[in-house]
Amino acid sequence: MQFSTIEELVQLAEAQGQAIADIMIEEEALATGVPKEKIISKMFQHLDTMEKAVQRGLTEEIRSRSGLTGGDARKLEGYLRQGSTLSGQRVLQAVSRAIATNEVNAAMGTIVATPTAGASGVIPGCLFGLAGELGVDRDVMVRFLFTSGAIGYVIANRSFISGAAGGCQAEVGSASAMAAGAIVEMAGGTPRQSAHAVAIALKNTLGLVCDPVAGLVEVPCVMRNAMGASNAIVSADLALAGIESIIPADEVIGAMYRVGQAMPGTLKETALGGLAATPTGERHRQRLFGSSHERAEEKGGIQDE
Amino acid sequence: MAGIAMKYRSVFDIIGPVMIGPSSSHTAGAARIGRMARRLFGRVPHKAQIEFCGSFAKTYQGHGTDVAIVGGLMGFDTHDPRIKDALKISEDIGLAISITTVDLPEEHPNTAWIRLEDEAGAMRVKGISVGGGKIAMLEADEFQMNLSGDAWTAFVFHKDQFGLIASVASVLADRRINIARMEMSRKAKGQEALLIIETDEEISASAGSQIAGIADVAHVRILPPL
Question: In which pathway does it act (chain A) (predicted)?
């Protein structure tokens, strides 16, 4: 790819007078040798898969194998229909779709990892929550995914995207930044404004711990996907208002990398710290998996990568 | 690009894979390890003994790592909905599964050892899940490797001899098949050896049989990308 930083990505887009989505499609074709039409049609399939997961989560009785999660997306939809909410229709529609997707994920349903399975609700949540409101067609929705992907590509290569490697800032945080940049583009903002939205969204998740209760990608992950979606929309609005991040996106990504490295292993998907180590978290672990005498040995921390 | 190795190379490494939840490293990665193990074995096994280490051992029940890896052993892809019922399906087709956990702190935290068996033979492989659904197979029958499954791959089992690599490479060069990566492992000097070649282009069956015809080549297996 001809870009490895957000700045390079923005400059490419500005120099060519194109959107980030166009740059990503062209670079993908160049890097992989796969024709553009094939790349685009694969992304259409991903869009369909995401939509099915959203629909399942909003309409079916979803329950995870552990019984810890399921049904909250429908609860929120019911609340939304009453018409009186604090956050408003657009934000909560995105949030309910983010929850829907992640509940399906927790229940071993089919999802698209964006960028991971644990954070798979944020991007489809924002996309399907806003697309109807903004009146965009499926071509624009596919472009949203390419823009998200371009931003995620930079973050993944310069920092990390898995909770085990960098904490939840790397997972839901990355997804949130990817969505924020793509929302700006979908709403008619400039590539430069997308970069500011990326920076703002990522700044707001620095230091976020990955602390799955009983080691499962459910609690707190489903609710964090909801938080990630709302963070993305607010960050996009700030950027569209002309607000600039004092710290540029690439520097925030660098900061996230260093914060992730400084975080102890107990806070990186080991289920040894944070919410997982609360009395209630511990009780759920014992209920699901019984006691484990090996836990003391793990305090050094397990890492995924 | 200056100075950093790009681990992720495609937009679909970020937006994807399509998979059965809940964890890209514990579920999708495990399914791919199982699928790769079965491909290396080359046929449907009758018996599979799976040993989980590290985080796999601690959380496999909640993450569905067990069903995913068994689904993979039956050839299911990361997004195949049959994964959820893999344990039941394996019973139905007569594939005996045993799952145990082992404490091997020196291993990668997401490691699975799999021993596959049928009346014609057995094979023991080791795979690790490195995140986002990406995997690496590190060992098969004591041959060391570092195989992602992302490319067309030729496995050339042969007797360790000079000139063999050149002969194999020239078959590929004649057919304009570009070698992307190559690794070599042998049990001892002059003994059984394994040459693994990953290529950019498809390796046709006829290229495979031409390589198999080279002196000192015992047999060849060609696998498409996972």
Answer: Carbohydrate biosynthesis; gluconeogenesis
Quote the minimal CA–CA distance from B61 to chain A in Å: 8
Cα–Cα distances (Å) from A125 to A100, A194, A227, B61, in that order, read: 8, 18, 11, 28
Give the lowest-confidence range in A151-155, A287-291, B50-54: A287-291
Encoded tokens for B151: 């490319």
Q: Is A214 in contact with B62 (Cβ distance < 8 A)?
A: yes
pLDDT in tens, A30-53: 998 899 999 999 999 999 999 999
pTM of the predicted protein model: 0.90
Q: Give me the residues paired with residue B50 across strands.
A: B99, B114
How many residue contacts between A and B have a Cβ separation below 8 Å? 173
Encode pLDDT of B154-212 as tens digits.
999 999 989 999 999 999 999 999 999 999 998 888 899 999 999 999 999 999 999 99
Q: What is the 3-state secondary structure (H, E, C) of A189-227?
A: CCHHHHHHHHHHHHHCCCCCCECCHHHCCCCCHHHHHHH
Q: What is the DSSP string of B95-161?
A: -EEEEEEE--TTS-SEEEEEEEEETTEEEEEEEEEEETTEEEEEEETTEEEEE-S-SEEEEEEEE--
Contact (CB<8Å) A117/B79: no
Lowest mean pLDDT among A122-136, A221-235, B123-137: B123-137
On whether the CB atoms of residues A182 and A194 are closer than 8 A, the answer is yes
Q: Residue A209 is which amino acid? A: V
- Quote the Cα angle for B86-B88-B94, to 5°: 100
Interface of A with B in 227-246 (CB under 8 A): none
Burial B21-36 (b: 16+ CB within 10 A, else e): bbbbbbbbbbbbbbbb
Please name the residues between 143 and 162 in chain B that touch chain A, using a CB distance below 8 Å.
none
Residues 3-62 (B) with a CB less than 8 A from some CB of A:
4, 6-25, 27-28, 54-55, 58-59, 61-62
* Facing B19 at nearest CB: one of A24, A111, A152: A111
Measured distance CA(A250)–CA(A268) in Å, rounded: 23
Q: Tokens 């499926």 label which residue?
A: A138
Q: Do B14 and A161 touch (CB under 8 A)?
A: yes
Interface residue of A7, A46, A126, A157 to substitute, partner B, most B CBs within 10 Å: A157
Give the ipTM: 0.93
Does any CB of chain B come closer than 8 Å to the CB of residue A5? no
Cis peptide leading into B105, omega within 30 of 0? no
Q: Comparing C-alpha atoms, which of B123, B156, B142 is closest to residue B42?
A: B123
Q: Do B11 and A39 touch (CB under 8 A)?
A: yes
Q: Which residues neighbour A117 within 8 Å (Cβ) at sequence distance 6 or greater?
A: A105, A111, A217, B19, B21, B22, B23, B24, B27, B28
When pLDDT is averaged across residues B75-85 and rounded to a whole number, the result is 95
